[in-house]
Design goal:
single chain, 156 residues, alpha+beta, Rossmann fold, six-stranded mixed β-sheet, three-stranded antiparallel β-sheet, 35% helix, globular, disordered N terminus
Length: 156
């Protein structure tokens, strides 16, 4: 009887171990990469695949490990902005995070857009689309657009 109970006990632990190993967090569609890792909209991290061509986020942070999740408000807001930018067909090449007050988005057309973490993502994306459309019609290409002020500051 004791042997049967011990076998059941160890078998139960082993099955629990196998189940916990099988329940890896589901990784959504990757929206950016940080070094050799990609990250999805929920902040879930995994190694970057060879064919993934994603915007690069440059940020001073602790080392990342696969299958971990980044729980940071500012970082999650950046991922949200990236998702909205992709849906709006704005091509972001790189993001440089300096602090809460300065986050630079480098677009593939060479324009640098500076924001802070307090900016409303939907306002930012729609405003940027309108500005870029207007400049395209006028035949102008700005070097940078700074959204950290009440009215965006445009430099040519």
């Amino acid at each position: 009887m004791t042997i049967v109970l011990l076998i059941n006990f160890f078998l139960g632990d082993y099955l629990f171990f196998l189940k916990s190993k099988a329940e890896k967090p589901k990784f959504g569609k990757p929206v950016a990469r940080i070094g050799e890792f990609s990250v999805d909209l929920k902040g879930q991290v995994r190694r970057v695949g060879e064919s993934e061509n994603l915007p690069q986020i440059v940020v001073l942070t602790e080392p990342l490990f696969g299958n971990e999740r980044i729980e940071n408000y500012e970082f999650n807001k950046i991922l949200f902005i990236l998702d909205r930018a992709e849906k709006s067909e704005l091509d972001v090449e790189k993001i440089a995070v300096y602090n809460k007050e300065r986050i630079d988005f480098y677009l593939k057309n060479g324009i640098m857009v500076t924001v802070n973490s307090e900016l409303d993502a939907d306002y930012f994306i729609s405003s940027l689309q309108i500005m870029l459309s207007r400049f395209k019609i006028e035949g102008k290409v700005p070097a940078s657009i700074d959204y950290r002020f009440n009215k965006p500051v445009v430099k040519f």
